[in-house]
Design goal:
By secondary structure, the chain is an alpha/beta fold. It is built from nine helices and 20 strands. α4 links the parallel β13 and β14. It is globular, with a radius of gyration of 20 Å.
């Protein structure tokens, strides 16, 4: 099969032929239909977050099951599936207490000494976060995918696997936004737009979108933002405090920068919660004013929307098909795998919401 391979951090991906093994116990072979180009991929590609090389990036995907190995119980050949990078074992403390996204059990991978799932001759090809979705096929643990309705378009289903689940879940699971709450969202890319849409579905009374690009702020309004702030033109924190007469109940940082994480904290009202979703580079420290803790403010991370993805993703599909979850306008362009480097370059510019790689004859 063809795959986009990263051989060294900071270099362009190369489209090459690789070999995929047959599924073994609890493994699923998926024909990739579509995969979103996510900023998280860029963090690994540019070396901000180290990962073994050579590897196949890509994680926000949907496809069709081609084959399953022994003991697979959750999917069967022909099923349409969404993949998820928070692959879980199902029986560790995190899993048994309902926190599937926190699972780090090594048993969802092949054991050391086993043949690799994907190789190129004698060379082992790593799959980023256990998926490696910038490829025509994925061979994953069965808990790395979930079956969905067949009437769901797979190019839109792919977005649910990361951006939508991360943003929507941060609202509904991590921060527990309630009807009437005020919300501020810093960064209106795919994840930020999903936060806005999730806040709308949750019944938030006021949803303030913050970005430096007017085009993204315009898009944010179609996803449910009641107010917008152009951070290139004004002090975002001061404007939020002015709009809300004292700050928001929930803030969501969806960029991954020190400055914006600190802004998310400063725009809270007493008792408010700041949620840092963006991937802040390793070694970067966040500075908070200690006296703010006396007003019962909280700051927390959100990993993949604190998801329970076997339950959450089919529900998100239902919300889309009901017309309540916006996915169509999130896709800025559909491209071929050969255009992946151009899409990554655009991602650095940050002008589009989402590029989606679509494979011929599948999506």
């Amino acid at each position: 099969m063809k795959a986009a391979i990263l051989r060294q951090a900071g270099q362009a991906l190369e489209i090459e032929e690789v070999q995929v093994d047959k599924p073994r116990s609890r493994e699923v072979l998926i024909r990739t239909a579509a995969v979103g180009v996510c900023h998280s991929d860029l963090h690994f590609i540019d070396g901000t977050y180290p990962f073994p090389m050579p590897c196949i990036p890509g994680h926000e995907a949907a496809g069709i099951v081609e084959a399953v190995g022994p003991e697979v119980r959750t999917v069967k050949p022909g099923d349409h599936v969404i993949t998820c990078l928070s692959i879980f074992c199902g029986h560790c403390e995190h899993c048994l207490t309902g926190h599937l996204s926190r699972c780090v059990s090594p048993e969802t991978k092949r054991a050391a000494g086993d043949a690799p799932r994907i190789a190129q001759g004698e060379a082992v090809m790593q799959q980023l976060v256990g998926l490696g979705a910038f490829a025509e096929q994925m061979l994953v643990h069965e808990h790395g995918c979930v079956a969905i309705r067949r009437d769901m378009p797979l190019d839109r289903a792919a977005l649910i696997g990361c951006a939508v689940m991360t943003g929507y879940g941060a609202v509904t699971h991590t921060s527990n936004v309630r009807p009437g709450d005020t919300v501020a969202v810093i960064g209106c890319g795919g994840i930020g737009l999903s936060v806005i849409n999730g806040a709308l579905i949750a019944g938030a009374g006021r949803i303030i979108a913050i970005d430096r690009l007017a085009s993204k702020l315009t898009l944010a309004k179609t996803f449910g933002a009641t107010d917008t702030i152009d951070a290139s033109q004004m002090d975002a924190v001061a404007r939020v405090m002015e709009l809300t007469a004292g700050g928001v109940h929930h803030s969501f940082e969806a960029i991954g920068l020190k400055a914006t994480a600190e802004q998310a904290w400063r725009m809270l009202r007493r008792g408010g919660t700041a949620n840092v979703i963006g991937m802040i580079p390793p070694g970067v420290n966040i500075e908070l004013r200690g006296s703010d803790f006396l007003s019962e403010k909280r700051i927390q991370g959100s990993l993949m929307g604190s998801n329970r993805f076997p339950v959450d993703m089919p529900r998100l599909v239902d919300l889309y098909l009901q017309g309540r979850l916006q996915l169509d306008s999130m896709i800025s362009q559909r491209i071929k795998l050969a255009q992946i480097n151009e899409a990554l370059a655009e991602l650095k510019r940050g002008e589009l919401a989402r590029s989606v790689v679509v494979f011929d004859g599948v999506a």
